Amino acid sequence: DIYQIIHYSFCIWTIRNLRKCKKCQILAPCSQGSCLHTTAQLNTKNWDRKNRIVYPPQQKDEPPRPAEVFHCRRQIKYSKDKMWYLAKLIKGMSIDQALAQLEFSDKKGAIAIKEVLLEAQEMAVKNHNVEFKSNLYVAESFSGKGKYLKRIRYHGRGMFGIMDKVHCHYFVKLVEGTPPVVVQKTPFDQAKEYVEQLRSRTIIHSL
Amino acid sequence: MAASMCRTLRIFNQPAGPGLKCVASLLEVQLAQPVVIPVRTKKRYFIPPSVSIKSRSLEEQEAAVRAAGVVARQQYIERPINISCTAGIVDPYIPPEGDARLSTLSKEGLKQRTEQLRQSAASQLAFRKIKDHDSEFSSKGFAVKAQEIFIEAHAALTEFNKEKLHSLVTERCYPEMVRGNRYKTLHWRFIESLEPPRVVHARCPDMVSKGNMYGQVTVRMHSRQTLAIYDRFGRLMLGDEEEPRDVLEYLVMERHLINPYGCWRLHGKIVPAWAPPKDPIIKTVMIPGPKLKPEEEFESLNYEVPNPEAVQWHK
C-alpha cells in the first residue's frame, strides 16, 4: 500500500534524524494511513492572515459591517507581563484616547504600542476602506511571549544563572465605529440578581 | 552598575521653594536640604570600540570592511524583461472631440463620420503588414472579436481567474487591471452594445531589432455596462448594481506578429482628454493640504484644491 510505504520511509527518516514522531509512539505503527502527518510545518502567524479574509457583498437591507483591521508587532524588547498592563489600559478605548494615553505613559512599551496603533490606523485608511481615521476603537489588544535569548548571569562562588532576554509580541484589532459603552455592574445589582435567582427557584414534589 | 536617574530627577522635581517651576530656577533659589547628586565614579575597564568611533563616510566604511577581509557577494542588478508584449501604446490614437456626442444625422456628425471613415495612410500600411503575418485578419470581423475578448477578460477579472485573464490580456495590461483588487469583490455586467464596434487605428511598431514586429489595433466601442465594487467587508465602494451606464471606450489590442502562436490580447485603453470625470467613491477622502505656519489659518488662505490637467492618457 502506498501509504504504508510513505509512512514507513518517513518513520525511518525520523529515526535517523533522532526525532520521534509522536503519533507513531502512541498509535500502532503502520496502520492503514492513520499515522500520516498532514502538516509538516507549524505556522502560527495567524494574526497577519486575518487581514486577508474577504466577506461577500452585503444586501441593501443589512446593517453595514464595521471594518476590522488586525495588526501586530513581533519580538519587541520588553516583558510580556509588563506589556500586558499597557494592553489592558487601552483595551476598549477610542484610538485617539489610546494614543493620548500612550504618549504620556512612562513605560518603554508605550512607544512600541503607539507606533503599532499609528501604523494600523494608516493601513485602515489606505487599504481597508475606513472612512474616518478617528472613527476607530481598540476592540482587542493583548501581548504574547516572543522568543527569548539566553545569557549567563554570573553569581558568586562560581554559580551562574541563565538570564532570559525577554521579548514579546503585541497584537491589536481596530474596529470602525464608536467604542461600545461597558455597563459597570454595581454590587447592589449583583446582589439583586442573586436574590431574584433565589426567588425564581421552583420547589418540586411539594404541596 | 550606575544608579538609575530617578534619584537625580527626584531632587529636581521637588516642590521645594515657592515659584519653583523649572530646573533653571533651581540654581537661583535656596533649597531646604543640601543637594546630593549621585555621580558615576567607577572606572569602565572595557570600552567597546564603537563608542570612540565617529561617524564614517561610505568610502571609509568600505575600506574598513575590505581591510577586515570580509568579501561581499557580487550584486546582480537584474530586471526581468517581458518580450511577449510591448511596454506601452505606440503612436496612440487621438479620438476626435465630441465623438458619440453628436448625432449622425446632423451636419457636424456627417463630417465627423466621413473623416473617420477615411483612415489615415499609416493605419492602412499597418493593416497590410498585419495581413502579411496573420492571413485571417480583417478590419471588419476583428472589431467583433475584440469586443468578445473584452467581455471575456472582464468576466474573468470579476472571478479573478488568473490563467484565463493572462491568456486574454497582455502582461502590461494585467497589473493595471488587477492592482488593488485582490481583497475586493467586483460585480460587472455587459448589458448591450449601443453601436457596432469599429477599428479606428492600427500601428505596427518594431521593438529593439528590425524584424521583431508587434501589431497594435485600436477599436472603438460604445456600450452599456454595470459596475459595482465592494470592499473587503462587503460594503459598496463604487458604482451601482442596477444602474447601467453608457460607456465609450477605445481599446488597444496587441499581438506579437512574428510569434506563430501569438494571439490578439487586450493591451490597454485610451482615455481621451475630453472624457467626463469619473464618479467619486462613496467614502470621504482626505487630501493633504498646504503646510501652515503657526500664525496662519487655513480658512484665510483661500486654498484651491488642484485639479489634474485634462490630458489624454492611456491605461
UniProtKB/TrEMBL annotation, chain A:
Localization: Mitochondrion
Protein's recorded name: Large ribosomal subunit protein uL22m
Entry annotated with the keyword Ribonucleoprotein: yes
Similarity comment text for this entry: Belongs to the universal ribosomal protein uL22 family.
Any one GO biological process: translation
Stored Pfam families: Ribosomal_L22
Organism: Astyanax mexicanus
Keyword check for Transcription regulation: no
InterPro entries: Ribosomal_uL22, Ribosomal_uL22_bac/org-type, Ribosomal_uL22_sf
Keyword terms, alphabetized: Mitochondrion, Ribonucleoprotein, Ribosomal protein, Transit peptide
GO cellular component, one term: mitochondrial large ribosomal subunit
Gene Ontology terms for molecular function: structural constituent of ribosome
TrEMBL record, chain B:
Principal location listed in the UniProt entry: mitochondrion
Subcellular compartments: Mitochondrion
Alphabetic keyword roster: Mitochondrion, Ribonucleoprotein, Ribosomal protein, Transit peptide
Lineage: superkingdom: Eukaryota
Keyword Phosphoprotein: no
Gene Ontology, cellular component aspect: mitochondrion; ribonucleoprotein complex; ribosome
Domain called Tim44-like: residue spans: 123-271
Function: Component of the mitochondrial large ribosomal subunit (mt-LSU). Within the mitochondrial ribosomes, required to direct the nascent polypeptide toward the tunnel exit and position the exit at a distance from the membrane surface.
Family per similarity comment: Belongs to the mitochondrion-specific ribosomal protein mL45 family.
PANTHER family for this protein: 39S RIBOSOMAL PROTEIN L45, MITOCHONDRIAL, LARGE RIBOSOMAL SUBUNIT PROTEIN ML45
Record-given protein name: Large ribosomal subunit protein mL45
